[in-house]
Amino acid sequence: MAARSRPDPADVAACRRLLQAGSRSFFAASLLLPASVREPATVLYAFCRVADDAVDLSPNSATAIARLHARLDGIFAGTPDEDPVDRALAIVVRVHDLPRSVFDALIEGLAWDVGGRTYETFSDLIAYCARVAGTVGTLMTLLMGRRDPRVLARACDLGVAMQLTNIARDVGEDARAGRIYLPLDWMAEAGLSPAAFLADPRFDRRIAGLVERLLAEADRLYRRSQSGIGALPGGCRPAIHAARLIYQEIGILLAARGYDSIAQRSVVPQGRKLALVGRALLDAGFASGPTRQKALAEVQFLIDAVRPEGGEGLMADQGLDRLMDIFERLAREPGSARTGRVLRPRRGRTRASRLTATA
């Protein structure tokens, strides 16, 4: 019997329901993607969501991590568990030639989260962001049919920038959950004691300076990432550009509030999201290609894992004749600032999961 070239529609539907329930922002944004990319992307994000929940909700994180590796063994051997997400992902990884090591890196990032790891330097923090966000950027780029190392480097720039934005936004929330993602050497330079801050997380000019510094690094990477969007298939550009603009807007809101991410959580209003989506749709025709800037050293291992040949991921560009329908669906999305996990997780929720929730 010939190998399937697409997952079973029932399995994809199960993945879609999972995301509708817990990652509604991704589900809404996926409406901007061509159908040929939207389906495998839904499967990929469903696995990321399942993996994060498996680690987050397990009483024994080490066992949960081991179980995820075992599931990947079956997926990459073509003998997945009898689970719709695993069955669908087994086909997606084969058809699109997705590297196993990138998935392993994602799971490593989840393990770092539940292990309470802290990050001494900014480079250490970027290494974490590479695992929980650069991995997703790499895999999504492969689903869109691009394997050029320069395009992958810019995709990693975007993923890391988004994760840095998450961290800047959630300094207070993370501290109240007993977690610090700010580089410890930055805190020392500012005269902040991590232990004292965790015991009593309060906003002051020192925290403002660290949040501003983190967002400046994110903005640098957002600027680098823009050139890579022009190298994506035309039908894929609006969704990726919209995500970039919406996440950057979080930083703009934080700056307007004096970089206070302790007292409240900055959330992009639904109306503003729609405006940014409209801007993305108008801007997405830019034809710039990826720059020759080197990849971040901390993400190079992800790019090295990708074979330049293989994969059936190059999807034909689609027109934007569905725009009105997309806008209507986005407008109907519940105005709740955060739906699901990859946003304001309950105490103990891993940060990695937050890239599958709302901005």
TrEMBL record:
Its BP terms in the Gene Ontology are:
carotenoid biosynthetic process
Q: Per the record's keyword annotation, is Transferase included, yes or no?
A: yes
The keyword Transferase appears for this protein:
yes
Which InterPro entries does this UniProt record tie to the protein? Isoprenoid_synthase_dom_sf, Squ/phyt_synthse, Squalene/phytoene_synthase_CS, Trans_IPPS_bact-type, Trans_IPPS_HH
Q: Which cofactor does it need?
A: ATP
- Molecular function terms, GO-annotated: geranylgeranyl diphosphate synthase activity; squalene synthase [NAD(P)H] activity
Q: Which SUPFAM superfamilies match?
A: Terpenoid synthases
Report keywords, A-Z: Carotenoid biosynthesis, Transferase
Pathway entry: Carotenoid biosynthesis; phytoene biosynthesis
Gene3D superfamilies with a match to the protein in the record? Farnesyl Diphosphate Synthase
Q: Which CDD domains match?
A: Trans_IPPS_HH
One short Pfam name that applies is SQS_PSY
- What family does the database annotate? Belongs to the phytoene/squalene synthase family.
Name of this protein: Phytoene synthase
* Species this protein is from: Phreatobacter oligotrophus
